[in-house]
């Protein structure tokens, strides 16, 4: 009985907060404002991070930086699958408002993944790869990243966009300050300062999100989970969403492996140093915010039957996506070589054609993000995973077809572009069917009322 009362009060707080927010602005206006704010926050984060990397590269040994990034990449990959929980948490919460069970299922999943990372990945780093990193630093990074993932997903579920946007640029800024403190005041080595600053900045940004979230929404108690049909559906969605995240990561690593297998080290360097960072930055700026800010509002609109709001979001985002991708493509067609040689040594000028071909399909990649968000907001996570798998299969198939006609490294990026184009086509069909279903349901409802 007490559990039900507690859950009722929790939902009342969330619903009241949502009603207050909805009185001030529509879902479309909230999604648009948050998305644009996220672009500026991400630009600030990228600028801080890039400036920090460039500064470190000038005086820190390349071997030390390689060690640091390798360890971070391995640990990040082991925890990144849990970011797939975010969309399932958003959709399930918008449908059920059962914050307590959803949060506790995620808590137990996160604890399990952190323990697995601690027990498997940490010994792998220490003993198999023989990377000389202090045990306390590895444990601290695992725990810090775990806390950050937990609170990031939680504020996403509650649609606390203003907290999420501040956390984006606060983390790199705090890491830079902590690095300077560890290196210059505590006289730690550069690599130790990097590990400690990453660990403490992750904990700091997690603490910031916790404090800010608690000002608006109370913490749900740790308790046993009632696995009713709705919560079993949430677990299924979370597993499918995590698999989709894994498939999206696989698309990137397949391109790297194909480049390693069929092309020279210089061509691999072009891809890793120039093309892949550009892909990452464009994704951070214009693709990830779709799932963070637009998907939750679509889910909310679907629950309330506000299909006109979704149509407004679609028109606005498609206009934005076409504009950004057109400007990006024209910029790469006319200035890709100048841009590459401005930022990188002239030896990387051969990456310009690859970058230009990436610009050809970025528009499909951006628009597909909205389509997938729309599909996921309906709870169709299996279809979303199937779309991603189709993209991976298309990438591999098209690469070997293109290899028959050309030995140029551009074949890799064209194959990736074909994968995203296939995803866009399949998503367009599914999206169209869902829209037609809503129109038909609306027509039938109007007829029954008459």
Automatic annotation (TrEMBL):
The chain crosses the membrane at residues 35-60, 66-85, 105-125, 137-156, 168-186, 192-211, 245-265, 277-295, 316-335, 355-373, 385-403, 409-430. InterPro entries: Poly_Biosynth_Transport. Coiled coil: none annotated. Keywords: Cell membrane, Membrane, Transmembrane, Transmembrane helix. It is a multi-pass membrane protein. One of its GO terms (cellular component) is plasma membrane. This is Polysaccharide biosynthesis protein.
